[in-house]
Amino acid sequence: MINGSIPDIIVGRLPRYLQALQRMHQEGRHTTSSKELGDRLGYTAAQIRKDLSQFGEFGKQGTGYSIPFLIGQLQTILKVDRMWDILLVGAGSLGHAIANYNGFANRGFRIALIVDNDPNKIGTKIANFVVQDASQVKALLFGSGIKIAMLTVPASNAQAVAEELTNAGIKAILNYAPVPLSLPKGIHVEYIDPLIQLQHMTYYID
Amino acid sequence: MINGSIPDIIVGRLPRYLQALQRMHQEGRHTTSSKELGDRLGYTAAQIRKDLSQFGEFGKQGTGYSIPFLIGQLQTILKVDRMWDILLVGAGSLGHAIANYNGFANRGFRIALIVDNDPNKIGTKIANFVVQDASQVKALLFGSGIKIAMLTVPASNAQAVAEELTNAGIKAILNYAPVPLSLPKGIHVEYIDPLIQLQHMTYYID
DNA sequence: CATTGTGAACGGGTTCACAGCA
DNA sequence: TGCTGTGAACCCGTTCACAATG
């Protein structure tokens, strides 16, 4: 393990490894192998070993990997050994569903602030939060330490809102709006768009 | 264009091309080029030309691509030149958000049936649908022509439910539960898991 | 003896570069 | 001139295969 720049495709698999390991841990397991982990996730054993070897030597020959140890290592690598506060932009039905989802906390995340630009929504309560005015987002974020946003606004506003967020210091955006965002280098964007995935699958169905 | 088996990674980009083209169409545009399309989506012009060339010769030298024509071609290739009925499994808050989302129809999909296994939810109404009993799913699907399911059930049930769906004739599953599904060859699965994507991004943030 | 870590071989997707054509 | 379609070159991620070791 002598590396500065890890391929993004490898980084993208680490959360899946972590998820599977946490599940094994819940099942009371203590040890696993690259083979078993690969079988669960649909990867080859060699790939898992090669991926992990980019970050260190975490296994033992003949034995495999200690599950709790590897969980700890991956949490450190992915920086989810801490709690990340998240800004939720958009208090529509999807925003509601996200705000009410209780699976974030044990994975390193928590919704910390909800904003919307609809006067009818500002001031209403969602899951213990009062919806704040989106136009004040820069002031609301100032000093908050929030660096991640989830975007659930209409497609037509997404680019403009994303630019405001960038301007307000946000460094990563999980974009639920069905539009590609064009933002400065250094801002990380991931997309969630069920229609893209549905259309991918229909190609294969008769 | 002489091809039987297109790489899946190319198929996965086609819905994005289609989405961008539809947006251009809404903007009143008639023609585009591989360069412009690539700029919108973050791909190189060469890649877009090469991808499209797998399916035919859709462009004109010197001019580019006719937007309505290319939209039609991609819709045919992806089989979204028809309407696909979808089964929604799980009537929790995420299921509600999905059922109330009105962006499916103009992209080739519509929710046709909602089921849940919670007696308190069965019989309630969501977005004009009465929630049906999940245990009857095979009978409900029989003769319906529904081949696609969206899964918004707890992680602990997801594998078992997915197997039932497979058994009931479902061919494609969009899985919102944070677990990898293990299903027979020929069943297509796509995953949506915001935590995986958040943990991917935190790797890059300080 | 089971299983890791890894250099080397392999494979396939991306980019290049240019002929061809409107 | 502008832009497509595509063979060839290139690049990079995956798989192989085996020495190393608890």
Compact summary:
The structure is a homodimer of 206-residue chains. Chain A is an alpha/beta fold.
Notes on the protein architecture:
The structure is a homodimer of 206-residue chains. The first copy, chain A, has helices at 8-26, 34-41, 45-53, 67-78, 93-100, 137-141, 155-167, 194-202; strands at 31-32, 59-60, 64-66, 84-89, 109-116, 125-126, 129-130, 132-133, 148-151, 172-175, 188-191. Chain A is α/β, with parallel strands linked by helices and 206 residues long. Chain A folds into two domains: 8-78, Arc Repressor Mutant, subunit A (Orthogonal Bundle), CATH 1.10.10; 84-196, NAD(P)-binding Rossmann-like Domain (Rossmann fold, 3-Layer(aba) Sandwich). In chain A, the strands form three sheets. Chain A has a six-stranded parallel beta sheet with strand order 8-5-4-9-10-11, with helices on one face. Chain A has a three-stranded antiparallel beta sheet with strand order 1-3-2. Chain A has a two-stranded antiparallel sheet with strand order 6-7. In chain A, helix 7 (155-167) links the parallel strand 9 (148-151) and strand 10. In chain A, helix 1 (8-26) packs antiparallel against helix 4 and helix 2 packs across helix 3. The longest helix of chain A is centred in the N-terminal third of the chain and has 19 residues, at 8-26. The radius of gyration of chain A is 20 Å and the shape is globular. The relative contact order of chain A is 0.09. Chains A and B meet through helix 1, helix 5 and helix 8 of A and helix 2, helix 6 and helix 9 of B. The structure holds a DNA duplex (22 and 22 nucleotides).
